[in-house]
Amino acid sequence: MEPILIVKTGTTLASLAGECGDFEDWIRVGMGLDRNQVTVVSVFEGAGLPDPKSFAGVVVTGSGAMVSHRESWSERTAKWLRDAVERTIPALGICYGHQLLAHALGGRVGPNPRGREIGTVRVRLAPEAADDALLAGFGGTLRVHTTHSESVLELPEPAVRLGSSQADPNSAFSFGTSAWGVQFHPEFSAHAMTRYIEERRELLVAEGIDAEERLGGVEESPDGTAVLRRFRDLLSGQADSRRSGEKT
User: Fold this and answer.
1) Catalytic residue annotation
2) Could you tell me if 61 and 9 are in contact, meaning their C-beta atoms sit under 8 angstroms apart?
3) Is 247 among the domain residues?
4) What pTM was estimated for this model as a whole?
5) How far apart, in whole angstroms, are the C-alpha atoms of residue 194 and residue 189?
6) E strand or H helix at 104, and its extent?
7) Is residue 144 part of a domain?
8) How many domains does the chain have?
9) pLDDT digits (tens, 9 = 90+) for 2-60
């Protein structure tokens, strides 16, 4: 299988990065891949984007930036991402990547009117998820980690809503047969989630959020890892199909 491209749109907390790596490391490990199986491009630092056809698929990371600010590097990445989806390159957007994917395809992103969502949350899967290539077989809910203040306010047409949480009606969606966005962080461990809540404790209190309650609700998320592994397997299956087609 060709390498997987990780489009890096930001970094994790500095203390976490020094201790256990950054988003791209957690995604790679969560997908069960070796270092030589991924290519990382830090678009927020000005790196250029390669031809998406050179990769089995694309994962777009989270970020501390805001899609609604429409920074030049973000808009450039959105245009590239739209082209990749139109060429049916498999893509998975995570948190900021989820919002950027929706924005790139014609959706609307902005501050979540329900406020900040942070902690280990329950995402209720829509009936449409039962037949979805990425989320089929998970039952009615996913237990996952999330931290964000902006959300996808309107999905692009003709996206399919696949899941919602108490604070976000558009927690997961698909677009066509090869693109998905998830507002949650499937790559987060319980340790990472705990550190995010602790780091934002004063901000949460100022916003009327019970930080201690959120800390007490943190638990491991095998569902998150399973989503990443499912995406990896989808890429492998598509690569096998392409090779079979070439042989015939």
Assistant:
1) 95, 185, 187
2) yes
3) no
4) 0.95
5) 9
6) helix 96-104
7) yes
8) 1
9) 999 999 999 999 999 999 999 999 999 999 999 999 999 999 999 999 999 999 999 99
